[in-house]
Amino acid sequence: MSADPADFIRAQTRREHPSLVPELVLHLASRATDLWEATEATLERTGLPPPYWAFAWPGGQALARLALDRPETVRGKRVLDFAAGSGVAALAAAKAGAAHVTACEIDAFACQAMALNADANGLALEILDIDVLAKPASGWNVIFAGDVFYEKPMADKVWPWLKAAAATGVHVLVADPGRAYLPATGLTEIARYTVPTSLDLEDRLARETRILEVRV
Ligand SMILES: C[S@@+](CC[C@H](N)C(=O)[O-])C[C@H]1O[C@@H](n2cnc3c(N)ncnc32)[C@H](O)[C@@H]1O
Q1: Cβ neighbourhood burial of 72 (10 Å; 0-12, 13-18, 19+)
Q2: How far is the CA of 69 from the centre of ligand 1 (A)?
Q3: Which atom of ligand 1 is found nearest the CA of 150?
Q4: Which letter does DSSP use for residue 50 in this model?
Q5: Is any ligand 1 atom within 6 A of the Cβ of residue 176?
Q6: pLDDT tens track for 151-205
Q7: Does 13 contact ligand 1 (Cβ within 6 A)?
């Protein structure tokens, strides 16, 4: 099998419309475990993170829906989609008229998948393959954080960074479908969506997903 990441992604995914955001087309997989095994076999490595990039998670889809339904949230603004995965929310922000959209990821496959997904939709993204948590957020008006509170070590790093960004005037929007490490305080709900999902990824067929503003 080719080790070229773009060829690998094209071979392992199908171009599909995410359930809540049919306006976009993404390279998506249907079975997480099969793709995870194929990734490890191709790279001849084990212990890799799951291929999150091949799924549009409820958080990302809810943020994408919000951007398309309330374009004033992003129109003319500089938007960061933190931990963007497939880039679903970033692409929706670009489609909704953001002035500039950055999508960041620490997974190299996710960065490649986002480039393919941007091309597939004829949209422009700046893709950052660095850990933006190493420095205070700077240069963005809006930060999206979809489905980022599923693991404690990550939540412990992300939450202070998002709060610090909000304190400098950035409009920080978290989208969460009920993950274990969502902070209990400091968030205000502004929207809610029922996102269809699959039993391969979740323990149910839909997830109530809230969009929450980080309060200053
Ligand atoms: C559950 S996925 C959510 C992806 C996307 N936001 C969505 O909702 O579809 C979480 C993503 O966080 C990424 N991630 C974890 N730590 C990160 C960090 N420090 N910076 C950027 N991305 C990170 C992972 O690689 C993974 O793709």
Answers
A1: exposed
A2: 23
A3: 1
A4: P
A5: no
A6: 999 999 999 999 999 999 999 999 999 999 999 999 999 999 999 998 888 989 9
A7: no
pLDDT at residue number 174:
98
Q: Averaging pLDDT over each range in 27-31, 38-42, 46-50, 138-142, which range is the top one?
A: 138-142
Write down all domains in the chain, each with its CATH number in brackets.
57-214 (3.40.50.150)
* Atom number, ligand 1, closest to the C-alpha of residue 133: 19
Testing ligand 1's pocket by substitution, the residue of 107, 132, 156 carrying the most ligand atoms inside 8 A of its CB is 107
Q: Is the dihedral of CA 42, 43, 46, 50 positive or negative?
A: negative
CA distances from 170 to 77, 96, 151, 159, 162 (A): 11, 19, 24, 14, 9
Say which DSSP state 86 is in: T
pLDDT of residue 31: 83
Tell me how far the alpha carbon of residue 85 lies from the centroid of ligand 1, in angstroms.
Answer: 5
What is the percent of the chain where pLDDT is above 90?
85
